């Protein structure tokens, strides 16, 4: 919403083009004297009253004009002509050449994941049952292959392709098809960054067309952009729009500063290219904001600078290493505004006792305003700035404390990815523990958004079940959410570990949310 600020002016323009200029009125001291006659006194009194009335009227009129003219809608000149962008009758305005070069570098990615049927009745494994029913037993689906579609962008001629982590996450097989080529190439996974939702894969093919990167820090609101991908599996598709906003934080990834666009980004576009009018990559299509699942003109792309930084690290080492400061922060709320004046930054509200921040002397309610000279506007800026630095790298912080800016230099530690930290199941004294073969992880914002898990459901999610394991036989399945163990509500992995330790070697009830509804599993 725009705000119109009414400011005092010294010159006022009226509709009749009469210009009034404010003047300073100087009062002169008047000596008191006896009137020569009552008539003169009365006349003087009349003149004084008249002058006073006129002066008051002038002030009132000027004040009224001041208020009226302070709010004045300005109009642009009327349209006198319309211009055709093309002066030749046999020519059309087109971006075909630019788009065509870019589409050659955008590929289709399909994944396959083996899903084991968890609902087969145990009696189906009985030899008598199999012998009696014969072929009917063989027709019961035991396993199925789950397939999904996405897009990717070739970034080098020797087969390196960038895409979203959520496109290939958990896939047993990644298949890539090139534009206008029915050949299917099996891709190998180079590395992933779950916190940034970026992945790099590679196919065994050379002399491939590839896309060139633009500097995403140069992107401006209003720039014309094109989204290229494979929506709904119908083949390569291009949509046009503009840059609607930059540096957007929608809290689906730990590290994000999305480019927002109204170019249509539909299912299957994830991992595709967002290019400028030159055909250069400015972002990787990642998410949409929608209630129905379709495009509403609010799409988000990871900036090319972030994609390039992560891709370079994944290609070189297979993993991404980020700096760790060790603070929890919040944005400046309205009730804190008075404490920090007009300063912007991230307010420190928590400090890890074993962190570089603690060692350097950072305090709760410090306001971090800059990192290495780069201004920090909010918590997301700080998270991205620290995350772009490497472990053991020095970070020069500007900190507002007690109304004064202080300079603090900190050597960063290495950030651990909480999404990749599985819960260690406590060892049981019995070899028959039903938890063996099961891996659980916290429900990250990315997982919640990807699997459309409602906000009111808390717990840990089962990300892997070993085939034919005791955990599988007990009824646990991949994708299940464990919300409670006996009397302990599970909100994160620490709660889950605490519950397992409390009821170690005992039969315990697990409250589980699954694709089939809510169920209770009793296991040891």
Structure overview:
- The protein has helices at 38-70, 96-103, 127-133, 135-138, 165-168, 304-317, 337-340, 356-360, 379-387, 445-450, 470-474, 493-502; strands at residues 11-13, 19-21, 106-116, 143-154, 160-163, 173-177, 184-193, 198-202, 224-229, 237-248, 258-261, 273-276, 281-288, 299-303, 323-324, 327-330, 346-351, 367-371, 374-375, 394-401, 404-411, 413-414, 438-442, 460-465, 481-485, 488-489, 508-514, 517-523.
- By secondary structure, it is an alpha+beta fold.
- The protein has a six-stranded antiparallel barrel.
Question: How is the topology of this model organized?
Answer:
Layout: E1 11-13, E2 19-21, H1 38-70, H2 96-103, E3 106-116, H3 127-133, H4 135-138, E4 143-154, E5 160-163, H5 165-168, E6 173-177, E7 184-193, E8 198-202, E9 224-229, E10 237-248, E11 258-261, E12 273-276, E13 281-288, E14 299-303, H6 304-317, E15 323-324, E16 327-330, H7 337-340, E17 346-351, H8 356-360, E18 367-371, E19 374-375, H9 379-387, E20 394-401, E21 404-411, E22 413-414, E23 438-442, H10 445-450, E24 460-465, H11 470-474, E25 481-485, E26 488-489, H12 493-502, E27 508-514, E28 517-523
Antiparallel strand pairs: 1-2, 3-4, 3-6, 4-5, 5-8, 6-7, 7-8, 9-10, 9-12, 10-11, 11-14, 12-13, 13-14, 15-22, 16-17, 17-18, 18-19, 18-20, 20-21, 23-24, 24-25, 25-26, 25-27, 27-28
């Amino acid at each position: 919403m725009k705000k119109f600020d009414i400011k005092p002016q010294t010159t006022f323009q009226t509709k009749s083009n009469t210009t009034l200029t404010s003047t300073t009125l100087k009062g002169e001291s008047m000596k008191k004297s006896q009137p020569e006659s009552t008539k003169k006194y009365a006349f003087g009194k009349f003149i004084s009253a008249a002058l006073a009335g006129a002066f008051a009227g002038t002030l009132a009129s000027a004040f009224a004009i001041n208020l009226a003219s302070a709010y004045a809608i300005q109009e642009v000149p009327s349209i006198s002509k319309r211009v055709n962008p093309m002066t030749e009758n046999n020519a059309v305005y087109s971006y075909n050449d630019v788009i065509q070069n870019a589409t050659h570098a955008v590929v289709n990615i399909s994944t396959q994941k083996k899903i084991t049927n968890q609902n087969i009745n145990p009696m189906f494994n009985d030899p008598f049952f199999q012998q009696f029913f014969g072929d009917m037993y063989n027709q019961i689906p035991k396993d199925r292959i789950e397939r999904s579609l996405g897009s990717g962008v070739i970034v080098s001629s020797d087969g390196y392709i960038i895409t979203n982590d959520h496109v290939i996450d958990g896939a047993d097989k990644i298949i890539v098809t090139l534009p206008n080529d029915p050949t299917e190439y099996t891709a190998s996974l180079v590395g992933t960054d779950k916190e940034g939702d970026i992945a790099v894969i590679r196919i065994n093919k050379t002399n491939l067309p590839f896309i060139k990167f633009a500097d995403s820090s140069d992107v401006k609101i209003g720039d014309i952009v094109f989204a290229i991908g494979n929506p709904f599996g119908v083949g390569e598709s291009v949509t046009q729009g503009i840059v609607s906003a930059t540096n957007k934080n929608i809290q689906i990834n730990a590290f994000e500063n999305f480019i927002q666009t109204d170019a249509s980004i539909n299912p299957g576009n994830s991992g595709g290219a967002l290019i400028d009018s030159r055909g250069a990559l400015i972002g990787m299509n990642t998410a949409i904001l929608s209630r129905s699942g379709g495009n509403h003109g609010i799409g988000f792309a990871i900036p090319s600078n972030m994609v390039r930084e992560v891709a370079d690290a994944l290609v070189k080492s297979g993993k991404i290493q980020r700096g760790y400061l060790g603070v929890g922060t919040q944005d400046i709320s309205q009730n804190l505004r008075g404490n920090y004046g007009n300063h912007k930054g991230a307010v420190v509200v928590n400090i890890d006792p074993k962190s570089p921040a603690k060692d350097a002397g950072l305090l709760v309610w410090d306001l971090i305003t800059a990192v290495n000279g780069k201004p920090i506007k909010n918590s997301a800026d700080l998270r991205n700035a620290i995350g772009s630095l490497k472990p053991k790298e020095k970070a020069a912080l500007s900190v507002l404390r007690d109304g004064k800016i202080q300079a603090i230099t900190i050597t960063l530690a290495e950030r651990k990815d909480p999404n990749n930290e599985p819960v260690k199941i406590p060892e049981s004294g019995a070899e028959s523990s039903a938890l063996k073969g099961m891996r659980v992880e916290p429900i990250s914002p990315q997982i919640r958004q990807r699997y459309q898990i409602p906000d009111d459901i808390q717990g840990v999610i089962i990300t892997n079940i070993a085939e034919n394991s005791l955990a599988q036989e007990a009824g646990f399945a991949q994708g299940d959410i464990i919300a409670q163990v006996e009397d302990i509500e599970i909100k994160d992995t620490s709660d889950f570990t605490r519950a397992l330790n409390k009821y170690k070697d005992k039969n315990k009830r697990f409250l589980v949310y699954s694709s089939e509804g809510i169920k209770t599993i009793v296991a040891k």
